[in-house]
Specification:
Elements lengths: L1 H9 L9 H5 L8 H8 L3 E10 L2 E10 L4 E11 L3 H30 L7 H14 L2 H17 L4 H18 L4 H18 L4 H13 L3 H14 L4 H13 L3 H14 L6 H14 L3 H9 L9 H13 L3 H14 L5 H8 L4 H13 L6
Antiparallel strand pairs: 1-2, 2-3
Helix pairs in contact: 1-4, 4-5, 5-6, 6-7, 7-8, 7-9, 7-17, 8-9, 9-10, 9-11, 10-11, 11-12, 11-13, 12-13, 13-14, 13-15, 13-18, 14-15, 15-16, 17-18
Length: 372
């Protein structure tokens, strides 16, 4: 099980994971967690145990931050010992899916709190990720600046190029549809550099998929997004991106399946708001307006909503037969985003499948969104 967990965590290519053979040498040593971390040059140490009682198996796991000496995550898994290999796979995937996002959150928090003298390339990258999670226009601009700075500081760090591409395409499709050609051109250059530096990096594949789907090349986008998911099935981010590609291609049932998988493998994902907002769009396209409304109203961080996700609540409300309430909410969206217009929204989603693009535009008109 230790080897399986190590292999699963190693698929998150931004993690530096010590090999099992090295870790096993500490089994007979009376070394503290802090000493192990110092010896191996790591910050986080995962410990666990497996116990069996009759036909019951209990696996206990905890993740320790050696900088603070605190246990930052722990979990216990109790299972019936019907099929040891199925149990082993289930628990391994659960551990990997929980721990990687937990480390991501801690690193982003450390980057946000770092003093100027402490900021290095990795922390600049984390600042970029933190800004990109917000999905508001100002934050996306910040994120682009951070990722471009990482490109300057470390020209061989592939993930920063990939993220630079992803954020530019979000900017084009959500806020600056009139700049789609220029933003997609730079994004394509960034994505190609990421792939050139590290062809096995799932982020490079996701960046390429995001560019193709933003330009309407759905078949190619889907092929690349599926490859990224296959490279790391435990990645909530890859699942979310695949779901978005499926949504823009008009495959809404399949998109909902991926969004649900993204939420299931990482219940505390910082992009939970975006995932549920995208779910609401797919439900809207399928005519499941009650489910769409429930999805968008269940988000934990409404302030993270971008201009499109803010629109999905009144879209579903209007179709449920509550036009006055829908128009009232839409008036709030227009107050927060005075630049919103049919032309600007259409420019960003013009390459989406007709079964999502056309009903969105038509309903926005009925909600009183101006043409220009």
């Amino acid at each position: 099980m230790t080897e399986d967990v190590i292999n699963a965590l190693s698929k998150f290519r931004w993690l530096f994971v010590i090999a099992g053979g090295t870790m096993f040498t500490y089994r007979e040593k009376n070394a503290s967690t802090a000493q192990v971390a110092t010896d191996l040059g790591v910050r986080f140490v995962m410990e666990g145990s497996v116990r069996q009682a009759g036909q019951r198996l209990r696996v206990s796991v905890q993740l320790n931050d050696t900088d603070t000496g605190n246990s930052i995550w722990s979990q216990r898994y109790d299972r019936e010992l019907d099929d040891i290999f199925v149990i082993q796979d289930e628990i391994t995937n659960a551990i990997a899916a929980a721990i990687a996002p937990e480390i991501e959150r801690l690193e982003r928090r450390r980057a946000d709190n770092a003093q100027p003298a402490e900021v290095d390339t990795w922390l600049v990258y984390q600042k970029g990720l933190s800004a990109a999670d917000e999905s508001l226009e100002g934050k996306l601009i910040e994120a682009i600046g951070y990722f471009d700075e990482v490109n300057r500081l470390d020209p061989k760090f592939a993930p920063a190029y990939a993220w630079g591409a992803l954020v530019r395409m979000t900017m084009a499709n959500v806020y600056r549809g009139n700049e789609l050609a220029d933003l997609s051109r730079v994004a394509k250059e960034k994505a190609e550099m990421a792939y050139k530096l590290d062809p096995a990096e799932p982020l490079a594949l996701l960046a390429a998929a995001r560019i193709q789907t933003g330009l309407g090349n759905h078949e190619l986008a889907l092929a690349q997004a599926w490859k990224a998911v296959e490279a790391n099935t435990n990645s909530a981010h890859a699942r979310r991106r695949l779901g978005h590609v499926l949504l823009t291609a008009g495959q809404h049932e399949a998109a909902l399946e991926q969004f649900d998988k993204a939420l299931s493998v990482s219940l505390l994902d910082p992009t939970e708001t975006m995932i549920k907002g995208l779910k609401a769009f797919s439900h809207f396209a399928l005519g499941e307006f009650d489910k769409g409304l429930a999805a968008v109203r269940s988000v934990n961080s409404p302030k993270r909503m971008n201009i499109l996700v803010r629109c999905v609540e009144p879209l579903n409300l209007f179709k449920l037969g509550h036009p006055e309430e829908a128009r009232s909410i839409m008036a709030g969206v227009r107050a927060d985003f005075p630049q919103i217009s049919i032309a600007s929204i259409y420019a960003g989603i013009k390459h989406h499948a007709e079964n999502i693009r056309d009903p969105v535009i038509a309903t926005l008109r009925e909600l009183g969104v101006p043409e220009e």
